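Slide 14.
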Amino acid sequence: MILMPALLFILWGAAVRCRGQDGGLTFDGDIRHYAVATNTVYVATDERLYQLSHDLTLVRNVTQRGVLKVQQLDQVQFHRVSETASSNATLRINVLLPFVENDVLISCGVTDDRCGHCEVLKLMDISILNYSETIQLGPLWHSKASVAVLVKVKNSPSESNTFILTAVQQQKGQNVSCTSDSKTVTLQNSNHQQVGGIFSLNEEHDSPSIIRVGDVDFVDGFQISSTIYLLSNVPSGEQNNRIRLIWLKAEGSKSKTFKSLRGATLRISEAEDGHRLVASSVMPDAQRVLWSGVFSVDAGLTNTELFVFDIGPDFTEDTYIDPDFCNLCKDPPSVTKTLRPEAALYRQSNMTSVLAVRHKTWVVFFIGTGDGQLIKLAVDKNYHTSCPTVLYRDDEDRQVFPKIHLDPVDRNHVYVPLGKKMMRVPASKCSTYADVQECWSAQDPQCVWCGSGKNCMFADDCEDSDWLSIPEDYQENMVSFRVAEEPTGQIALNVQTHLTAGQTARSNFACQFSACHNTSGPPPQFPQCTCILPKGRLPPKVNVKIRLGSMVLSKQLTLTNCSDISGPPSSVLCVRCIRAGCGWSINKCSWANEGVGNDSVCQTMVPRINFSRPEISSITPSVVSFYGRNHTVLYGRNLSDVTRVRMQAHTACTPQESPVWNNTGVSLMFHIPSADRKGVVKVCVLLPDGSCHGSSFITYQSAPSCSNIVPSSTWLSGKRRMKIIGSHLDFVEGVTQSHAPQEVRLPENKNYQNLTYHTLAAKSAQGTSTVFLKVANKTLPCSTNNNQQLTINYYPDPKFISFKSIRAGDDVRIIIEKEADKLELMMEELLVWGVHKEIHYPCNMTAKETHNETDNFACEIKNPPDVEFQQLIIKYGDQEVELQLKSLSYLRVLYVLLLIPFIVVMVVMVYRSKQKKLTAKMNLLMENLELDMRNDIRQGFVDLQTEKADLMENVGAIPFLDYKHFASRIFFPESESLMKLCIKDISQDAMKVQLDECSRDFSRLIHDQLFLTSMVHALEEQKSFTIQNKCTLASLLTVALHSNLLYLTEVMEVLLKDLMQQNSNTQPKLLLRRTESTVEKLLTNWMSICLYGFLREIVGQHLFLMVSALTQQIRKGPVDCVTEKALYTLSEDWLLWQAQDFSALKLKVLFAVGGDGELSEPLEVNSLSCDTVEQVKEKILSTFKTKFGFSFNVPLRDVCIEYERDGSFVPLEEVDRSSEVIGEVTMLNTLKHYKVPDGATIKVLPRKTHPPLSPQGSLKDDENFSGKYFHLIDPDVDEDQRKDPERKKLKLKEVYLTKLLSTKVAVHSFVENLFRSIWGLTHGRAPHAIKYFFDFLDAQAHNMKIIDPDVLHIWKTNSLPLRFWINILKNPQFVFDMEKTPQLDGCLSVIAQAFMDSFSLTESQLGKYTPTNKLLYAKDIPRYKQEVKAYYKQIRDQSTITEAEFKSFLQEESKKHENEFNEAAALRELYKFIPRYFTEIQEKLNENGAPTELMEQLHHVKTQFDGLKSCKWS
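Slide 15: predicted structure.
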């Protein structure tokens, strides 16, 4: 007898995973439906149906598995089978209805063949099946948008029928194998006695129903008295939605019920976009039909709000045709009634469910959320809400079901279904409140302070009438007082209690005052008592004791003479007056009986501020766990006087305040305190006068949790990189372990799902260590949702045994052998170097093989020298291991010893046989080679020793570009179209171009800092927004805001601070190193604007002289016309070391003037014998421009030259019939080819016509120019095809490296002058922009507690030299009207590298493999570094620029270059980003708490621009 119940219990509990300590029950499958009746809870999962007692004790469960059998008329019937029997189908429940009157549970769903099936089970024993039928009742799929409810339809005043009302979402295109005659809304029989039998739709000769043609999502259905209510979401257009309410009068019959259809539309605002009904609950009320609904106020569930409606039915219309639902569907629809909310109660993100319960005059709402919270909200009769409290918070953030029910037995517990778990949560936290004040302050109508038990408890649990509770409406204080002046001059102190009390407490009400000297006042009468104070000065303190039954309330009152509360009228003074028990009358404080005693009068007053009004722009971070966050940074303006930061989740909740430190006026730090619930809190900053200003938001989310740690073990020495996987890990501030809790590791690369950190070292192996997470001031165990703590196993460090190396082509393959262990060491965790002669060669890991006793790792060394590595260095964690190559085996040594003599003999024989043949030829070749090399080296030495800076410094007027062309080339270096678009043409320069209305409104919008910073952040967060887009955005903003540089600077500072916060936890030294964000490009533009004057007045001349000197030096030697390489250069990559001998020529050039052949005076032009005809032309025109100060009037391509020989002129062409051809490649003609001597006369004349069939003016226009032609560098052809013996000479590149040094010597003085003009201080002061920005960087480093001076040095270097000066040095065409040749570009790159090396903090290690561009300035760099350090120090020591001084500088710069840019064009280009990312910008603005006016302004601008899409811009 004992065995059977035990066996049944085992079977029943098999599918229930566990009963948790929190009172919840976890199932193996997700909960699909649940229902509550009398003292029983029914839960349906995918494969089982459970019957639970009201306290969630398992009573029994049945499987939903069965078989499909073919019955009569080929109908398929579902039959449930036992636990152990085989099955081929599962009944998945969609409808679960307890029918208490008939003692049955109606369960309907769908089987695997997509057929509907219903069962009638015994109510108190679901294992007993009363009836089953294959029929559709409810949806044929799992749908949360369908409703089923039992309703009673009255046949007569004394009789009624119970039907099953189903409102089903119609699924389009759903394949079903059974017949489906489902209508939208139907009434089906609930028992066999009704006409047609159970589940029948029929009524005599009809099957009445309601039809909806389009889509509909049903949310809720219920019956109150004789009225049925149905609520649904009806799509209206592509994105809009209507929330519909249907009334049905449940009287007469099914047909009459449906014919009584009336409807209304619920609207919470004028706009319909995105509003949806999410959850619903009736508010019990005797007089009216009050109903509460959770509405989503955006497209998703991000913003949800709880509203109250009066939904009393309206059946007054005789004929009504609903526009969305119909019975006969013949007549045109009527106009529906619109219902508006009575009150908006509560806003909370992601609310999913609501239950309303009435307690006397209060209504208590239980609200479920999408992240697993159950929130309790009490609302009084005036719809004033109390402070919400969290009754339950799910660790896994599972969504709460749309329906919440009370425990039907004690009604002091709430059922909360979440995923696979069913919770039974206490409906209040009464027992947690320690005293009567706490009990009252909770504002919970379910709680009372019980005098007999002297504790806070549920009202039902207090056994007598000696209790206290909250009043019938919301009050801020339990005891309040008022001070009034009597006609006799005495002061009346009136004390009022805001309570409800039991009969015993009320009947024993008394007051005792410490300062009353007479009893002339009225006797105490609940809830108030009065004390008459003597004439004269008021006592500063009055103690009052209030007795209610056995309970005593004590209160100390601070009294103030009302006339003493004076000053300029302000909201702060008004609040102080009201809280002192006085009254406010005509902008002054008076006695309570002479003025208003409610602080609502203060809310209408404008606050009087004696400080600069603070503004909040951002908070970093603004999303935290509910444990809070330390060291949070708040950014804004006018923050200097801020004393505290206030955070308030709800107007009825007591705000939390946090002190501030590190207040710089634009930023401050504070701690975010912990919170009891997830959600959004409002933030403002407090001034000394108590007023709170600014508005921002902080979002509380769940605490971090772990699911796994990979790998699961580490070595004793620690520093193994571990990956923690879980959720909300971006909130973790530190990681520690149980064996060393005092050591905290900072997490790396953390995001929502994972973070990495390095393990701590341990002393003993074979042990475990528990991982803990530091979140704010809490240390949390790294545990799973099942409360299983995650640990790490410690094992001895890995042991590496040996290695061997194998040559594979140019690479070397290394095989490393390691003892097998439990560490599961990965390839990525090893760094390996091969060592040869103290040089480390990195070895790249390629493979791992695991054996029983050893592990083998393979790596490759790319292109090492031809040696065998004897030593290996292996690094793991922070440990390094050295391995030595084992000696050769005896057999291998013997083999080598035997092989050596044989090789020697063979070599000797071969050598002797060929020695005689080669000796003579080799001697001849060596003599010639030695002679050539001697000449080349001697000539290089002579050039180096005789080189001097004799370059001409008189270069004439410097061709500076004007400001707008300089700036546009900096702003848009890769977009010529934008460059031209944003520059005003000559006609526009004459007057200021007025902006059109669209541009003006958009300009006003971007002048709102919150909008602009939110827009930039929103765009940068999009993956499709490329780096080029970011640069374009920054430059367009620069042009659009160029007239307001002060505002542009403020925006840049805010964006820079945000960028610094992003990099502060990762690699601060990488800040501003590249241009990968909008603000980095913005900084480049800002520097260019602010330093243009310094560049033009101080640096420009030195830069132009250096560029001119380089150009002259390059032209002193040959330049290959095809490859652009030059003999005189600073770059080894552009060195023409294959050049043949050449000589300098001085040409007398005559220019044809007039049309009758008249010639000009001769012009002397320097040229080389190896110059091509094209190069000669270029030198002639360049010399002409230098000589006369203007360009020749004929362009280069239209110029031809002739050489005077024997009294006649011979045309010089780049290619003609006399050109030398090698293979298929033609050599370009040179002066040497034409045998032009020194002092020859050249005539220049315009080309009249281009050669026929040749549209290009130069051979360089040919696409295959480099393949068809050559100049000084021979093509790759056989030696036999070379006709010129001079070209067959061997040339060595290294011999010509001295040309680099001679070029450096020639231009060195110009380079040094340029460098020192850049880092020199004019009159001992740096330019305003540099000083201001360096001080800004110093302040940010101080705020971020960065003490490493190297970080500051790198920040300054990245922001000024790297971001601005390098751009100028490498691109002089940005500053001057000039062309930059490839040879010049190569030289400038070397100089720019030397410039940047001067700012570097690292010491370069020089050797024979060091690139020549590093060696060239190696001796100069240390001296430059000292000058740079002194430069930085001088700027730091310089007195700070005042805010007014810098503001004046920016205003002057704006005015100086006013009207030089086309601001309207920039605005229009800028706007193109808005429609593309409009939704993302909106979301970011909402996230940052943008005011409604700003959102409306954005929509207004979009509407204006959209209206112009079909029109051209004016």
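Speaker note: The chain is about 25% helix and 30% strand.
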